[in-house]
Amino acid sequence: MKYETQKVALPFFMVAMALFALQIVFGILAATVYVLPEFLSEGMPFHIMRMSHTNLLIVWLLIGFMGCTYYLLPEETETELHSPMIAYVQLGIFAFAGAAALIGYQFEIYEGRHYLEQPLWVKVLITVSFLMFLFNTSMTLLKGRKTAISLVLMLGLWLAAIFWLFAFYNPDNLALDKLYWWWIVHIWVEGVWELIMAALLGYLLIKMTGVDREIIEKWLYVIVGLALFSGLLGTGHHYYWIGTPAYWQPIGSIFSTLEVVPFFAMVVFAFYMFWKGNRNHPNKAAMLWTLGSAAMAFFGAGVWGFMHTLHWINYYSHGTQITAAHGHLAFYGAYVMLILGVISYAMPQIRRMQPYNQMLNMWSFWIMTAAMSFMTFTLTFAGVVQTHLQRVLGMNFMQIQDQLDLFYVMRLGAGVVMALGTLLFLYAIFGPKEEQVPATANIDATAD
Amino acid sequence: MKDGLTKAAARNIFYGGSLFFFILFAALTIHSHWYIVNVSTPEMPDSVALGKHVWEEHNCINCHTILGEGAYFAPEMGNVWTRFGGRDNPEGARAAIAGWMRAQPTGAPGRRQMPYFDINDEEMDALLDFLEWTDAIDTQGWPPHPSG
């Protein structure tokens, strides 16, 4: 850690990780209802659990992105942050808004649009906090060195904020509502968030592989170009069956198929730089998360996305457990793993300890990744069975769900293992400092 | 990477190409907006807007799906009107859906429980209008079966 203000990231990481843990708690509760349908049906109905689960994910990823940005920006711009105070205040506002929404949900206070359930005043607070964040980081960028990584990162964050404004527009016409709803949901996760992801990936690779910045940043522009060229019109794969014109079927099929390309490029990029690099960075855990994120994002977002994106397949699979399987692995691979990677990289430096003993962290990597993969497989099998019974044979929804019990039991098991992996990660990151034993005797202890 | 491509060229392709595809996407969205309002969705009486509000107020989307989007935990509602026979017998379907909702939770052992929602008669009428209206959206033939 070269700059004093980088430590601003610490409270962001702590809040993000606390919300991550809570997200998994709600996930396990909801998965339990799939297995034991009467579980908490009076106290906390399923819709509350699920909404809490998804909202916590979005909020902690955003706070995580903020923490990552505050950590890398001073290094990239070679200057201290504009104002640590603004950072702490906007974190306070964001965390308060998120907590208020979560508590309100338990008392049935919500707006009831998918993922945008937050009451209006919570949405306003989130906007205010995000604008303060953008002001703070943009001022830092303006006074410092402008690298491709920091420019792409800031562009991604600004665009995320701009498209978020569609959350305030809710047409009475359901089809119109859906048309613009995807301008937030799709454009975020399959568009501008990929800019954030690629920039963070590029940062980690520069730091840990020692490959020349010129090469990494050229790759970065190619990747984010591929992401937006495919991702914008790729929104069409959500416009097949909601009252939109038929031309979205070819457009959505073609461009969302191309959405696999930037994810493939990111895997090639990450592994190529890893092999090309000559720096033997001591933080093995952070390197593992970095490579793992690129690989799992390719499978979760790329392969699992492609699996049901062609319109003549989606006609049968749309809105089944296939979608749930894809959603879980894509978010985990692309965004969760990458933020955990940045945290793994940054925390030893923020805590001023050497990243030697990272075995626990690497164990948590394998446990969490295996659990999420297993969960994805069980949901995929459930989805295939459901698709056949419901969409080909035309059977009744509730009868089919009874036949998917086995998959839901296995999914719950995977969720419990995921929770164990998460606890291990949190302990590895925030727990007591390990005795510092060099993994290999000749590693330069001051390398970063 | 390829020697021919410089970082500046990659950057310019990124900005120029993204702008191009954004304009294309925005133009098609504007056309789709026009298409939805004028072609694929029926006239909207005020009660449909109220019904959509009731749908949102009770967070239906976090168990059900509507036109395939939602929580996959409970049945599809985009075509529930068809499933309850509303296209042949509207009065029968209205009574059946309202009666079904008012009978929740069923308490049937081993079955997913839908909560009881306090919905007055005017709201229930509006919700049914909303579901009937949604069922009439031209969805390119989706879903394949009335089962949703």
Describe this structure in words.
The complex is a heterodimer of chains A (448) and B (148). Chain A is built from 15 helices and no strands. The mean pLDDT of chain A is 95. Chain A has 448 residues and is mainly α. Chain A has a domain of 146 residues: Four Helix Bundle (Hemerythrin (Met), subunit A). With 148 residues, chain B is mostly helical. Chain B has two domains: 40 residues; 90 residues, Cytochrome Bc1 Complex, Chain D, domain 2. In chain B, 53% of the residues lie in helices and 3% in strands. Chain B has five helices and two strands; from the N terminus they run H-H-E-E-H-H-H. In chain B, strands 1-2 form a two-stranded antiparallel ribbon. Chain B starts with 6 loop residues before the first helix and ends in a 13-residue tail after the last helix. The mean pLDDT of chain B is 95. Classes of the chains: A mainly alpha (448), B mainly alpha (148).
What Rg of chain B, in angstroms, do the CA atoms define? 22 Å
- Share in β-strands of chain A: under 5%
Radius of gyration of chain A: 22 Å
Which second-level CATH architecture of the domain at 1-146 in chain A applies? Up-down Bundle
> What low-confidence regions of chain A span 5 or more consecutive residues with pLDDT below 50?
none
What is the H level of CATH, i.e. the homologous superfamily of the largest domain in chain B?
Cytochrome c-like domain
- The 3D shape of chain B can be described as elongated
Largest sheet of chain A: none
Q: Tally the helices of chain A: what do you get? A: 15
End-to-end span of chain B in angstroms? 49 Å
Q: Write the CATH fold name of the domain at 1-146 in chain A.
A: Four Helix Bundle (Hemerythrin (Met), subunit A)
* Quaternary state of the chains: heterodimer
| Sequence of strands across the biggest β-sheet of chain B | 1-2
